[in-house]
Amino acid sequence: MFDKVLIANRGEIALRVLRACRELGISTVAVHSTADANAMHVRLADESVCIGPPPAADSYLNVPALLSACEITGADAVHPGYGFLSENARFSDILAEHDISFIGPSGDHIRLMGDKIEAKQTAERLGIPVVPGSEGAVSDPKEAIQIARDIGFPVIIKAASGGGGRGMKVVEREADMEVSLHTTQSEAKAAFGDGSVYIEKYLGKPRHIEVQVLGDGQGGGVHLGERDCSLQRRHQKVWEEARSPALNDSQREEIGNICAKAIAEMRYSGAGTIEFLYENGEFYFIEMNTRLQVEHPVTEMITGLDLVAEQIRIASGSRLGYSQEDISFHGHAIECRINAENARTFMPSPGLVENVHVPGGLGVRVDSGIYSGYRIPPYYDSLIGKLIVFGKTRNECLMRLRRALGEYVVQGVETTIPLFIDLLQEPDIVDGSYDIHWLEKYLDRTSSAQ
């Protein structure tokens, strides 16, 4: 096991990693920008190091500064959390060159799954169902039109190196293909430094289903069930639940076992998430995230496994120590992402948190790094907390979530808490009959009605 872990992140995820390390008896190092000097994870860590000014490029993405922090403190491992450098293969390689463990998969696996074209080809080879589309990158408009004709309009053009919902364009008709292709290529080049794009069939009303997996890099691999992340705004997840209200047990078992087998065959090491679009009883692979997900707590709630602790154990060289048959699923969990944003316009609302009261009680968990008197900086993602609620059934979970949201108080800044209170009044949310377009349509409808 590691002696000291440097947490290369901030906010609630840094605090989440810190807590797992504490429970494992591992010393922690918090790194922070000057804007985060008073952050909760900095206050609680055994040691802290300032790594630069507020811009992420000068601090949380500053690899030389992070290496220096490791050397200064003697950290023998780095946990990247999510975002920032969590899926940066070169960072993983550099740490290995300095005999520092990266708590995550190998650089080779990060690279493989970071290229959406190679990832899709790998998934297909491993027996994972994929979305019909181009075999590789497409640059010629005539070729793009022929591919679209073969699979049928509408299609979606995606950046090969994309992520986070960026670098995507839906094409409804042939006449728009050439302009859309060039536009997506330009956007991909600007956002990711790689203008390669590929084409897939655009599904009309899919769900976004993802399967949590763990591999030990030594031939062991399991799945921890699925999460439904279909409530999205601009391709960004807002609400996640486990298990999906759209699947039955046989569908869950089938796709879960496919994913677990693939992870074992890849000799993948660490936590990962294989993401699908799901429509009319069929799964279609879209990507694999080679890191911890924001929404990992809902999986922890229904399995009882600490995913961060598992990441650390695996990175230290341990085998899984259990098989698929040892994993059981209980109840239902829902996570709401609480952002410092206006609940209708989604404009960021940084500033002083005057007062906070978080909900509690049976089956209620809040992952957050804010506190009364904390000033939310304007430089980073607006996520300030996650409300995770568990119930024996989905209905019990919804009732508990309604109660917990009513108790959650954050004064001084605007938050998205009112949005979730409103969503719980919607019949489609209550019965689970929503898709990835539902929230956008709801927001358009309710904003025009005001």
Polypeptide structure, described:
The chain is α+β, with helices and mostly antiparallel strands. It has 3 domains: about 5-105, Rossmann fold (3-Layer(aba) Sandwich), CATH 3.40.50.20; about 130-200, ATP-grasp fold, A domain (Dna Ligase, domain 1, 2-Layer Sandwich); about 205-450, ATP-grasp fold, B domain (D-amino Acid Aminotransferase, Chain A, domain 1). About 35% of the residues lie in helices and about 25% in strands. It has helices at about 10-25, 40-45, 65-75, 90-95, 105-115, 115-125, 140-150, 175-190, 250-265, 295-305, 305-315, 395-405, 415-425, 425-430, 440-450, and strands at about 5, 25-35, 45-50, 75-80, 100, 155-160, 170, 195-200, 205-215, 220-235, 235-240, 270-280, 280-290, 330-340, 350, 355, 365-370, 375, 385-390, 410. The strands form 5 sheets. The chain has an 8-stranded antiparallel sheet with strand order 13-12-9-10-11-14-19-17, with helices on both faces. It has a 5-stranded parallel sheet with strand order 3-2-1-4-5. Strand 1, helix 1 (about 10-25) and strand 2 (about 25-35) form a beta-alpha-beta unit. The longest helix is centred in the middle third of the chain and has 18 residues, at about 250-265. The radius of gyration is 21 Å and the shape is globular.
